[in-house]
Amino acid sequence: MLESYVKKILCSRVYDVAVETPIHAAPFLSERLGNTVLLKREDLQPVFSFKIRGAYNKLAQLTDEQRACGVVTASAGNHAQGLALAARHMGVKATIVMPRTTPEIKVKAVRARGAKVVLHGDAFDEALAYSQKLVDEKGLVYIHPYDDPDTIAGQGTVAMEILRQHHGALDAIFVPVGGGGLIAGIAAYVKYLRPDIKVIGVEPDESNCLQAALAAGKRVTLSQVGLFADGVAVAQVGKHTFEVCRHYVDEVITVSTDEMCAAIKDIYDDTRSICEPAGCLGVAGIKKYVEREGCTGKVMIAIDSGANVNFDRLRHVAERAEIGEKREALLAVTIPEKPGSFKAFCQAIGKRAITEFNYRFHTNAEAHIFVGVQTHPEHDPREALVARLQEDFPVLDLTDNELAKLHIRHMVGGHADKVTDEVVYRFEFPERPGALFNFLNKLGGRWNISMFHYRNHGAAYGRVVVGLQVPEADRAKVPEALESIGYAYWDETDNPAYALYLG
How high is the pLDDT of residue 444? Predict the structure, then answer.
């Protein structure tokens, strides 16, 4: 298997449109981690992503008759731009089916590169089904974003460049994983020529389809996929890609949204470039690996795989980066409702900087404050801060509480004493006209909405928390009603942050 892929990689035609990207040092991150961290700058490709390699190589392998038919794919991201540019260069008509929820910046980028854009459906699966329909009806040739040997070989040229460019010791390559095309190509080439080098995949913990497949020994379909790193939001790893990965990928590490935001900041600090959430996974994986292994003096390369980030999303990234770096703690602290309490709390905090402070009168006896405090992972960890404060006050650590980070910190305003039988759910809404009406219509006015908070951070989806007044006898009916709406949701009724500030 490896030999056939290596031959395909060596014969891949990618450099008509793709460029050989450099490997750059990350000096600040290297010094902090005590290891040499290098970045393979795929964000410097003409479409700001490695996807141009696989798309062009696949087109180059088609016959003249196939290219004359035109090509089609379904994509809301980097593959769409890569295929559009590749097709324009080769004079091939390309149709890209994109979900209607795709941000306008990405739609414009695909059209600007000469492809015909068809907006269909609210999710990728609907766009994919329609693209397959166009194959049947119009005889177009489908170009898969990752699950095709020629696409895998095109992506594998990244590994060919790494081994040619880097001549010293190399301990591991950390690769972002979505459907698996990039890591399959890299693993095939590296393990054939340098089996001593570890190939480590990195996935968001909300879309770990390769990790789940390796654990099960077969491809599995995730029941739910997180969308923050939309470039790798894939429910099932590819068939061809899994056959390579199951044998030649050393391990898969998963990282949180906060850890991705911190990695975006790390890359910016060292390169002054801003990558997308999927693009920073390699760096996030290196940091987690070093923390777990306690290793020093190693040489590790992260694939900086893309820079197609919406500007508006940077608000969310900046908000979460310090938490991901373990330099901020979010705490719920209960203090007596009496003169001098704030002063006593500030004395307990000491010289630490307060990043956020929210307060609302609760009762005559006590006050609940929502506070952000600067910490340091080594010199002043949040665990030590919490332990110190707990000597004087009841403290709840909310740093890892998604409801608190996404919504509560923006909603602190007091309890609703007259609201009874309230249940609370957190949703991800698709960003499209009619999303709220669809929610209300399918809910059918069955239960009163007692609370509603919405946030968007430049993504194709919005964050929503909803309170419903549901009598105890009706509680079992709620999940069925919410399933019919079709939006991802989480039950937050027992979340302590809600109980403290809003319940």
Answer: 65
